[in-house]
Amino acid sequence: MNRRTFLQSSAIGATSLLLSRNFSFAAANGADSRIEVLLDEPLGTISPNIYGHFAENLGGVLYDGVWVGPKSKVPNVQGLRKELIDHMRKIKAPVVRFPGGCFADSYDWRDGVGPADKRPTRTNFWAGVAKNGPAVHKYDPNQVGTNEFVEFCKLVGAEPYLAANVRSLPAQAFVQWVDYCNSPAGTTTLADMRAASGFADPFAVKYWGVGNESWGCGGSFTAAEYATEFRRYSEWLPPTATPLSLIASGPNTDEWDWTRGFLEEIVRKGHGQLDRIYGMALHHYAWNLARGRTNDWDAAKGDALQFDSTDWYELLREGDRMEGLIDGHWQVMGEIDQQHRIKLIVDEWGPWYKPGSEATPEDILEQTPSLRDAIFSGMTLDIFNRNPEKVAMANCAQLINCLNSLYLAHGDRFVITPVGHVFDLYSSHQGGEALRTLFTAPPVHYDRDGKPATFWGLRGSASRKGKTLTLTMTNPHVSQARTAEIVLHGAGVKSGTVTSLTHTDIHAHNTFSQRDVVIPQSADLKVSGNNLMLDVPAASVLAVKLELA
Ligand code: AHR
Predict the structure, then answer these.
(1) In the structure, how many helices (H) and strands (E) does the chain have?
(2) What is the C-alpha to C-alpha distance for residues 425 and 498, in angstroms, rounded to an integer?
(3) Do residues 386 and 323 both lie within one domain?
C-alpha cells in the first residue's frame, strides 16, 4: 500500500481567489500545475446514470458474480450475492443494463420467468468463445430472469435497463416483455403471470434498448436496415404508467456513418420519428493495439497485468478518444436532430485485454483490473462529467467478473477492484451541477518504440451540489507527482478532504488473497491563508471535496 503523503499544504482563502492569467510553472509557491474551477460557468446537471453498470449473461457475470442461488452458503438475498448488493448501494449504482450485450439478441425473456424449476436450459451466445480454458457457463439455466434481475436492481436502488432481442425474436416478443414488466396486475394475462410469481407491483422499467450492436452480433444490419427495424419495433408498445425511454443501437467507436445513416433513414418517415428515441448507444472499448505486436487478435490486445509504461500510455490514449467520440457523434446527430432531442448513451466502455489474468480461469472475458484501469476509469468518468448535456447514461463494461470489473467474486470470495474504488470516489458527482475547469500541467513525454509521443499531464472534472464542490482528477504520469494549485473562481472554501487512489507499482491490483493493495486513502485539507496546494501522486486518481464558504 502506498502511504506517500499526497497533500502538501493547505490553505485556501475564504473568499474567491482571482489569480493572474499569467500563471508561471516556476511559481514561487512551488506548484507545477494549476486547476481552475469556474463556479460561474455551469455545464449542466450530471445525470446519475452516467455512473451506470452492465451485467450480461456472459462468463461469470451473472452466475457466480450476481447470483449464488438461494441455497448457497454465500450470504445472499433471494439468491443474489449480498456483498455485491451492499457495495453497489454504497456507490449509489443508478442503473444496470441486462441481459446483454450480444447475449441479448439470442435471449428469449419468456425462458426466464415462471417457476424457477420449470425454466428451460438453453445454449448461451458466449458458449465456446473462451480460448483459454474449459467453456463453463456454456448453457443458460435461466435462474436469473426478469424477476430476479429487477429484484436485484431494487435491492441495489438502481433502475433496470433491459435490452430487447431484435435479431432473433419478433417485435411482438418485445411488446409482451414490456407488458409483462409494466402492466398493472389484473389488467393482462402477462401482468397476472408476474403477479403470480410474487410481483404484484409493475416493475416500471423505463429504459429499453432496441437490440444491441445491430451492426454486428445484433443482426449484421446496415444502418438503414436497422433504422427500419427500429421504427417497426418502436411503432407500438403497451401504454402503461411508465413512459418508455427507448435506446437505439448506435455506433461502434468512430463509425460516424452508422450514426448518420441510422438517423437519415429514421427521418425518412418524418422528423417526428426522432421523438421515439431517447438515446443512441455508443460503444468504445480500448485495446492496446497501437504497437502492432502480432496479427493474432487475442494476443494483440495486450495483457491486463504485464505491461510497460508505453503500454500504459497507449491504452490510456485509446480510452481518451472518448471525448472526441462524444463530440463527433454529437455533431453528426445534430445534422439531423438539430434540437438534440436524442442523447448519447455510452452503454459499453472500458479496456479490453487478452485472456490470461482471470481470477477465475474459466470465466471468459474476465480480466484483473489494475491501477492502470483505475486511471482509465477516472479519466473516462471525468469525460462524461464534462459533457453532461450530451451523455445521459453510461454503463461500464462490466459490473463483475468481466472486462473492466468493479468487483471480482468466486464462491465465497469477493474483492473490490481499483475500478470499484474509483466509482466510490466519484459517486458524489451524481446529480451535481458540472462546472467548467481548466487544468494546466506539464505534458507526459514518452517513447513509443523509438518515436517521441506525448499525453496530457493532469485532467479532471468538477461539480457542485449546494455548498459542496467535488473535484476529481487523474495524473497519468507513471513516475512524476504534480504539485497543483487549486483556484476557485466565484467562491471561497471553509474546509476540505482529499481521497487518493494510487500505488508505487503501476501494475498494482487487488486479489482474493490481497484485497487491500490498491485502496483509497483520505486526509483533511487544512484551510488557511489564500492558496490551496495539492500534491497529486504519480499514477493516481484523486477526489477532492470542498465545503464552500
Ligand atoms: O461486453 C462484451 C461484449 O462486447 C458485448 O456483449 C457486446 O455488446 C460487445 O461487443
Answers:
(1) 11, 25
(2) 10
(3) yes
Domain that holds residue 355: 47-430
Residue 403 CA: nearest ligand 1 atom is 1
Best residue for ligand 1 mutational test, from 106, 137, 213 (most atoms within 8 Å of Cβ): 213
| One domain for residues 282 and 293 | yes
Interval between CA 71 and ligand 1 midpoint (Å): 31
Indicate which residue's Cα is closest to atom 8 of ligand 1. Answer: 101
Q: Ligand 1: which atom is nearest the Cα of residue 213?
A: 8
Q: Pairing mode, if any, of strands 277-286 and 444-448?
A: unpaired
Pocket test for ligand 1, best of 56, 212, 252 (most atoms within 8 A of CB): 56
- Output the domain CATH number for residue 17: 2.60.40.1180
Ligand 1: which residues within 6 Å by Cβ? 56, 100-102, 212-213, 348, 397-398, 403
Question: In angstroms, what CA-CA distances link 521 with 233, 497, 500?
Answer: 49, 10, 5
In this structure, the answer to whether residues 40 and 51 fall within a common structural domain is: no
Tens digit of each residue's pLDDT, the chain (549 residues): 232 323 333 333 332 233 333 344 445 578 999 999 999 999 999 999 999 999 999 999 999 999 999 999 999 999 999 999 999 999 999 999 999 999 999 999 999 999 999 999 998 898 765 555 445 556 899 999 999 999 999 999 999 999 999 999 999 999 999 999 999 999 999 999 999 999 999 999 999 999 999 999 999 999 999 999 999 999 999 999 999 999 999 999 999 999 999 999 999 999 999 999 999 999 999 986 655 555 565 666 789 999 999 999 999 999 999 999 999 999 999 999 999 999 999 999 999 998 899 999 889 899 999 999 999 999 999 999 999 999 999 999 999 999 999 999 999 999 999 999 999 999 999 999 999 999 999 999 999 888 999 999 999 999 999 999 999 999 999 999 999 999 999 999 999 999 999 999 999 999 999 999 999 999 998 776 556 899 999 999 999 999 999
Residues 6+ apart with CB under 8 A from 134: 362
Q: Residue of the nearest CA to atom 3 in ligand 1?
A: 101
Task: Name the domain boundary from 430, 461, 481.
Answer: 430
> Global pTM?
0.94
CATH number for the domain spanning 137: value is 3.20.20.80
The C-alpha atoms of residue 60 and residue 409 are separated, in whole angstroms, by 8
Atom of ligand 1 nearest to the CA of 218: 8
Q: Give the residue whose CA is nearest to atom 7 of ligand 1.
A: 101
Q: Measured in angstroms, how far is the CA atom of residue 111 from the centroid of ligand 1? A: 22
State the greatest distance between any 2 C-alpha atoms of the chain, in Å, as a whole number: 75
Give the CA distances from residue 69 to residues 58, 60, 98, 149, 150, in Å, rounded to whole numbers and listed in that order.
17, 14, 18, 13, 16
Q: Please tell me the distance from the alpha carbon of residue 268 to that of residue 246, in angstroms, as a whole number.
A: 19
